[in-house]
Amino acid sequence: MGADLVERVRRRLAEGRAELTPSAVAAAVRGEAGGVLGDEEVLRAMSELGREFAGAGLLEPLLRAPGTTDVLVTAPDQVWVDGEDGLRRADVVFPDERAVRRLAQRLAVAAGRRLDEAVPHVDGWLPGAVRLHAVLPPITRNTCLSLRVLRPATHDLAELRARGAFSAEVAEALRALVRSRTAFLVVGGTGSGKTTLLAALLGCVPHDQRVVCVEDAGELEPDHPQVVRLVARAANVEGAGEVTVRDLVRQALRMRPDRIVVGEVRGAEVCDLLSALNTGHEGGAGTLHANSPAEVPARLEALAALGGLDRVALHSQVLAALRAVLHVRRTPEGRRLVEIGVFERAAGDLRVVPVWRHDTGWRNRALLESSR
């Protein structure tokens, strides 16, 4: 079924006032094709139209495939898939640029967003925990579409150890860290496994403690009987109804939490999290984008500045509230814990001191244990 026929059927259905039923679609297909299609051809055409009008269209099978984390479209004939085996080119090809643009705009509507010449970029969430980002020409050569599949983080420490993320000795040190109510951050790049490790560690929290998780997207599903999940909400097309992560951190304080967890610290909410951890809510945790533990203080300073917290105050807050930093990285062998560090003040400055590295082992385990 050609792209021109799809477009004509689309217009016919849009202009008609009849209910959109299979028989109405079949009649529209026969009408636009001149009535020369047989039953088998009509069914094939309806199947193509179904992919065109519903879900993610040609990308739907890629999104549903086990292990898929990202589906990326950079041109009609350039569709890429990322997953456990790394980035690879898919066999999917769109008929033309217009088809990619139509899909991007339809998905934007499904996410409650606008995407057109006036607003040529969009960032939103689709049903089924899929993050949407799209950019239209002229700010890019072709319509670019990025879909990230957020799969619930449900692995426990034993499973991560079996996958080679860390040794049995390190796993036991991580369990002791959580049980001693030491506050920590899991840091790393995009897709490095931060949320997966955080969920596994939350499963080690004693079951008589209440965990309140605040997230931008509902990824954390730890194996724990007392978990309350608060998920942020973006504003609608009219700009109303937004609920930020910072709003939810404040709400979490009123929910009798034993542990407050922020799925990803990415803004001014770091100020509220540090304040909570310094007012009796021990054992909190979160994730943070950082290329290495050494860069964590600078990242925290930048985020705290958004909330009006100066550098000196931030350093004092961090040293009183947080102790450990767990750095994960995506390697050719899989996602690995590569470094454990602790916060310390040195020459009046905040830094992260390594106590364990995957290539050299323990450097100062006593320093980690003394932080509990």
UniProtKB/TrEMBL annotation:
Position of the signal peptide: none
CDD domains assigned to the protein according to its UniProt record, in alphabetical order: VirB11-like_ATPase
Residues of the Bacterial type II secretion system protein E domain: 55-313
Lineage: superkingdom: Bacteria
Coiled-coil spans in chain: none
InterPro entries the UniProt entry points to: P-loop_NTPase (IPR027417), T2SS/T4SS_dom (IPR001482), T4SS_GSP_E_ATPase (IPR050921), TadA-like_ATPase (IPR022399)
GO MF term (any one): ATP hydrolysis activity
Pfam families: T2SSE
Family of the protein in this entry: Belongs to the GSP E family.
Name of the protein this chain belongs to: Type II secretion system protein E
Species this chain originates from: Actinosynnema mirum (strain ATCC 29888 / DSM 43827 / JCM 3225 / NBRC 14064 / NCIMB 13271 / NRRL B-12336 / IMRU 3971 / 101)
